[in-house]
Structures are given as structure tokens and as C-alpha cells.
Amino acid sequence: VIQECYVQNTAREYAKIYAAEAEPLEGFGEAPEIIPIFLVHRPANNIPYATVEEELVGEFVKYSVRDGKEVNFLRRDSEAGQKCCTFQHWVYEKTNGNLLVTDLQGVGMKLTDVGIATLAKGYKGFKGNCSISFIEQFRALHQCNKYCEMLGLKSLRTTHQKQRKATSMKSKNLPVSSTIKKTVPKKAREPRDFISSEH
User: Fold this and answer.
1) Domain map (residue ranges) of the chain
2) How far apart are CA 191 and CA 199, in angstroms?
3) pLDDT given at position 130
4) Would you state the pLDDT for residue 10?
5) Burial 109-126 (b: 16+ CB within 10 A, else e)
6) In angstroms, rounded to a whole number, what is the distance separating the alpha carbons of residues 184 and 179?
7) pLDDT at residue 66 tops 80
């Protein structure tokens, strides 16, 4: 439960910086907000710790998909979805590819229950709660949109293709050897691997 709070509130701080950079840009408009999550200690209860956050009412949408295999048209085509993708790209670039905010989901521009993937060593002492593979999948699947361009973010396509070519060249030289319209309570969403909490 503590890790869940730490991850979401860390992502929230990145989102605040992103909004401060993006919102003043002409034509950008509102940026996504990650709502805060609070840890509550209830010593008299059988489960003494719980998390509390604002209830989001409306159409709950997953804007980023964890395994990268699902196509989400609301992510690709909606303003909120595009801005979430740009937020991921912005964080990835700001942290030199060491950290990625993932599992972006919520109602409109208000997001909750996010995850963070970091490289194995972590980033500035912080280790995320999602697989490192999400970073590689993001690099391979992200398509820049107009909001990425407004922020001047570098395309990941060319970087990823160069890395893949370099890897394939090295391997040739090596010897052969071994969407629902209603209020969705937090407990109804998919639980994250190895993190349990009561909501």
C-alpha cells in the first residue's frame, strides 16, 4: 500500500511539471492531472492500512495499456489519450529513458492507479512497480502526435530503429552459441501484480 502511494504521488509530481511546461503553449490547453492518493492508518481494523482518493465519476478509460498488445482507439484519437501519450514521451525524455509512467487511466484528464517502470538499477534511487519491458514496448510502439511536436520532443522511431540496427549488426558478428460508461470503483479495476490494497 505504501509503494502504491509512493508510485502514484511520484507520477503526480512529474505530471505537475509537465503541465507547467505544456499548458502555456499556444493551442495545448489542459494537461492530464494525476490525482493524489493518501495512506490511512486504521489500527482498530483487521486491515490496518488503506488508501483514499477522489472518486472519479464518468467514463473510465485506459489510455496506456500495460502489455502494449491492445489497440485503444480512445487513447489514439481522444485529446486526453494523445496528451497522456505525450506525457509518457515527455517523462521518458526528461529521465533519459530511465523512467516511464504507465497504466495511465481515469476519467477525462483526471488519472489514477498509474504505474512506473524504471530500468533495473532504478532512477535516482527510485524503483518502479512495473516491468522494465514496458519501457522497451513504449519505445517501439509510441507514435508522436501534435502535442509531442508542441513540446519539441524527439521522435523515438529513429532512435529505436538505430538501436535495433546496431543490435542486429552486433549479433551477426557474434559466434553462434549457447470502456465503460459509469462510475468504476477502484476495487473493480485490475489489481497490479504484487501490490495489494484496500480501497
Assistant:
1) 1-151
2) 11
3) 86
4) 94
5) bebbbbbbbbbeeebeee
6) 10
7) no
CA–CA distances in Å: residue 67 to residues 64, 133, 134, 136, 154: 9, 9, 7, 11, 23
Secondary structure of residue 24 in the 3-state scheme: coil
89 sits in which H/E element: helix 79-94
Cα distance between residue 9 and residue 112, in whole Å: 10
Taking a C-beta distance cutoff of 8 angstroms, is the pair 39, 5 a contact?
A: yes
Instruction: Round to whole Å and give the CA distance between 91 and 99.
Output: 7
Count of Cβ atoms closer than 10 Å to residue 23 Cβ: 11
What is the average pLDDT across 71-78?
Answer: 63
Q: What is the CATH number of domain 1-151?
A: 3.20.200.10
Residue 186, CB-side half-sphere exposure with 13 Å CA sphere:
19
Give helix 133-141 / helix 79-94 axis angle, nearest 10°: 120
pTM of the model as a whole: 0.75
pLDDT category of residue 74 using cuts at 50, 70 and 90: low
Catalytic residues: 103
